[in-house]
From TrEMBL:
GO terms for molecular function: oxidoreductase activity; zinc ion binding. SUPFAM superfamilies: GroES-like (SSF50129), NAD(P)-binding Rossmann-fold domains (SSF51735). This is Enoyl reductase (ER) domain-containing protein. Its cofactor is Zn(2+). Pfam families: ADH_N, ADH_zinc_N. CDD domains: FDH_like_ADH2. Belongs to the zinc-containing alcohol dehydrogenase family. The lineage of its organism: Eukaryota, Fungi, Dikarya, Ascomycota, Pezizomycotina. Residues 8-349 form the Enoyl reductase (ER) domain. It comes from the Eukaryota. Keywords: Metal-binding, Oxidoreductase, Zinc. PANTHER family: NADP-DEPENDENT ISOPROPANOL DEHYDROGENASE (PTHR42813:SF4), ZINC-TYPE ALCOHOL DEHYDROGENASE-LIKE (PTHR42813).
Amino acid sequence: MRALVYKGASASPVIALEERPQPTLQLPTDCIIKMHRTTICGTDLHILHGNVPTCPPGRVLGHEGIGYVEEAGEGVKRFKKGDKVLISCITSCATCIPCRKGMSSHCKTGGWTFGHTNDGTQAEYVRIPHADSSLHPAPKAPEGDRDGKGLVTLSDILPTGLECGVLNGKVQPGCTVAIVGAGPVGLAALMTAQLYSPRMIVMIDRDESRLEVAKKMGATHTVVAGGADVQKKAMALTDDGEGFDTVIEAVGYPATFELCQDLVAVGGTIANVGVHGSKVDLHLEKLWGHNITITTRLVDAAATPMLLKLYEAGKLQTSSLVTHDFAFGDMVKAYDVFGKAAEHGALKLNIEM
């Protein structure tokens, strides 16, 4: 089979499309999935930049996708050959202590493994451990996403935006929200935050085209980042300049985390979503008495069943997040486009086998 392989952050090229052996069942609870669609995530770029040292050279990348069951192990009860499925970015045994606590991202025999510690979904076939609790039946595509391209956003970015941003950020009716970073995950946080009726959502980003997308998706205000006055402009939108009840960091850079600290109101919450590859400063000399909460989280995908219901009912604008189409044979080109997202106006890519 063909697979997109990480060669190492210092290698040239860093990635390559290669021929690899087709995966086989290793345990009775495995499924083999013939991939139909996959995509690229910002986390994949972090791997390419050397920010995820636990991902070794030679790994098949990718943790998102839609496909069809090619083979099901004897222990798989929920799926059979030919079933169309959504692949969760998180594998869960559903029985270990972290899974039973609702933290399947820390599953003792699963978690974030695809494209990280196990071969991933940017291939023609992928092995799914713990298939019964790591796959979802693919729902019927709604009117607003007739071709079904938007479904791939439910593998990762929709549950990530909701769980790590909105739920950890304690978004609630009538509150004010600032989202720093209008990339795919930031926009997913914007989309899912509206399920909880905040009165204001301010999107902050350097890319004005992404801010235009945010406006169409429901942002009440946008602020262009990059200038010295970005904090002043954002704070001026809040009551008496007091700051935001919830600030969601969806980039993963020291400067953006610092901006979040400048924007949070007394008693507010900073919900970190971004993947950080370097240390950040925490200004406790300013915040020690502000009664704020700072949360971190790796997505557990516990909200995926609920999001699938909303998708099927046409309540999620997932197709708005898919901007480009590629054939799988053009994966290297797709990475180039995704890596230069501002230049190409790229959000999520639909990559078809």
